[in-house]
Write a structure and sequence with these properties.
This protein is mostly helical and about 210 residues long. The protein has two domains: about 15-105, Rna Polymerase Sigma Factor, Chain: A, CATH 1.10.1740.10; about 125-195, Arc Repressor Mutant, subunit A. The longest helix is centred in the first third of the chain and has 25 residues, at about 5-25. The protein has helices spanning about 5-25, 30-50, 60-75, 85-105, 130-140, 145-155, 160-170, 170-190. Helix 2 (about 30-50) packs across helix 4 (about 85-105). It is built from eight helices and no strands.
Amino acid sequence: MTDMETTLRKQANEPRIEEYRLAASAIEGDRDAIDALWTMHRRWVAAVILTHKSRDEDLEDLLQEVAMTLVGKISTVRDPRHVRAWLRTVAINASRAAARSSQARPRLRLVGTEPEASGAPSIDVTAAKDEETRRLLGLVAKLPEAYREPLMLRALHGMRSRQIAEILDLPEATIDTRISRARKMLRDLARGDEVSPDRKIDVDRVD
């Protein structure tokens, strides 16, 4: 490897090295590092929550819950390189627990209001700026989870395939394939073709 190649590789890895250093300090209990780590990861964590939460749950409430878990339990993470994967698990667990709790609660509706249509998107309507955006997010919510999550991480956070692959613990080529197929399914849905969440698809096959 030439000196130039070594320099370029070092520069490419510097953001991750800095992230690992920050994570290591957070694990040791450095509150400033914890705050900085949350600022760094908050946006993509929101994308994960939007993928898994029910439409009745508030995004900000769930983000707050994940942030509190980060503060209280970051010390349990053994390896700074695993913080992203740990945060994803925390976000998914918080979203699913809230959904189960919501199902157990009686539902009340103000007189004169109309119930939301069946199949409404599992996102906050306030996140949509116009009707077309709401429609698009509604279509995304119909995608199988294995395709929905990488697409949301790409679309809402602009994450690269390598970053998404690290979070989801999947090969980068698989991420590229799932995002490509998710976009195709969205086009099919936009044309009126339904994509069933139960449709049997080999999600790990890379063409």
